[in-house]
Q: What sequence folds into this?
């Protein structure tokens, strides 16, 4: 857009003035005859020629158009715009900064372990927030690194705070065969199958049991009298119940690779990436080539693949299948390996803004075998109790 100048000329013989303008080869883009003046629109070159013109006609610059208008506005409001840009930069800076990391768990050992591990991955106070993909990679890395200690892990971003929810993996300690014990329920369930190699079966199939109930006893009875203690051996499977909720976007995008791998330059500022391309590419590898020590900005050479995005719109009716699949995926992260989902039912579907809330009830066949030591159980007292209860 070229610069334009709106001029006001007053006088008596406008035709004479216009002949003078024409002789200087000045292009007039618009001309208006008013009651006491004429107004004309000329470009930068024409305006400079008119400024040098010696004439008795009063010439007044009354308005600007095009580039010069925006330039003069910028010059006028430059301090104000500077404060706005500084404020936006400061807000972006703060919104992309981690100010607090909290690990939700009762054991200090687990909290300290995860805080240290997260710090090594730059998830710590006064570090910049990672991208969603980077955060998921960190989560999977922690689950793999500490698979003997962590059963399930979720990293939730709440403003400038990261809340890490974790469930400890409880590994059944191998006991010596000489240590007496009961087999008890590890959680509330309905018994589906019970197999005992040693000990007395106390419960039967389809019994509802609470966590801690004895399923296979380590006390051996003869003629209703407790004779000896053994280490109960067996496996109990029960039907366990879970309710899982998920949020499904109303609009969801699916990626399809449509191009070969290529390389491109990308500019990274805070947690944002600018790739100077109209097409959508998926980054496969990033190699930093320049990093500022003063500002959160760096330049990288990325290996990318062109991807086609397909958008799917979900309704309450069409979201059920996808919601169940996501709920299953979420549930599978906390289930033991030999578990099996035997039934599911959608309890609730509700649209919340740009998300669809889905709540799914699951019945899961799960190993509920747990152990309870009876090493200190006194058989004579046990028999006495049985006599008293008759």
A:
């Amino acid at each position: 857009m070229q610069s334009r100048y709106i001029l006001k000329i007053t006088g008596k013989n406008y035709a004479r003035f216009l002949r003078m303008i024409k002789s200087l080869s000045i292009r007039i883009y618009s001309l208006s005859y008013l009651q006491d003046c004429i107004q004309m629109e000329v470009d930068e070159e024409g305006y400079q020629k008119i400024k040098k013109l010696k004439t008795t006609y009063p010439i007044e610059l009354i308005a600007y158009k095009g580039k010069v208008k925006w330039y003069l506005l910028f010059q006028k409001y430059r301090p104000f715009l500077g404060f706005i840009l500084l404020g936006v930069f400061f807000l972006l800076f703060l919104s992309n900064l981690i100010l607090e990391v909290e690990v939700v768990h009762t054991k200090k050992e687990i909290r300290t372990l995860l805080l240290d591990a997260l710090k090594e991955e730059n998830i710590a106070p006064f570090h910049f927030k990672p991208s969603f993909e980077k955060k998921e990679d960190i989560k999977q890395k922690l689950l793999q690194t500490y698979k003997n200690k962590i059963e399930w892990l979720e990293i939730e971003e709440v403003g400038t705070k990261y809340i890490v929810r974790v469930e400890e993996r409880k590994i059944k300690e191998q006991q010596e065969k000489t240590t007496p014990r009961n087999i008890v329920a590890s959680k509330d369930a309905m018994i589906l199958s019970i197999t005992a190699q040693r000990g007395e079966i106390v419960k039967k199939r389809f019994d509802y049991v609470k966590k801690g109930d004895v399923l296979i006893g380590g006390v051996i009875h003869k003629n209703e009298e407790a004779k000896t203690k053994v280490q109960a051996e067996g496996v109990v499977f029960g039907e366990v119940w879970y309710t899982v909720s998920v949020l499904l976007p109303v609009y969801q995008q699916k990626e399809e690779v449509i191009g070969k791998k290529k390389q491109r330059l990308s500019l990274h500022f805070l947690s944002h990436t600018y790739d100077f391309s109209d097409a959508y590419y998926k980054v496969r590898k990033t190699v930093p080539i320049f990093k500022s020590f003063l500002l959160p900005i760096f330049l990288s050479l990325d290996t990318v693949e062109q991807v086609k995005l397909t958008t799917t719109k979900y309704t309450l009716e069409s979201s059920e299948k996808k919601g169940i699949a996501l709920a299953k995926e979420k549930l599978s992260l906390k289930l033991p390996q030999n578990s099996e989902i035997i039934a599911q039912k959608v309890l609730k579907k509700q649209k919340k803004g740009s998300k669809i809330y889905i709540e799914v009830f699951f019945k899961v066949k799960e190993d509920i075998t747990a152990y309870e030591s009876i090493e200190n159980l006194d058989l004579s007292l046990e028999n006495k109790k049985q006599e008293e209860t008759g």
About this structure: Residues 31 and 43 are 13 Å apart (CA to CA). The helical segments are 14-23, 44-51, 67-95, 108-120, 132-145, 319-332, 379-389. The two ends are 103 Å apart (CA to CA).
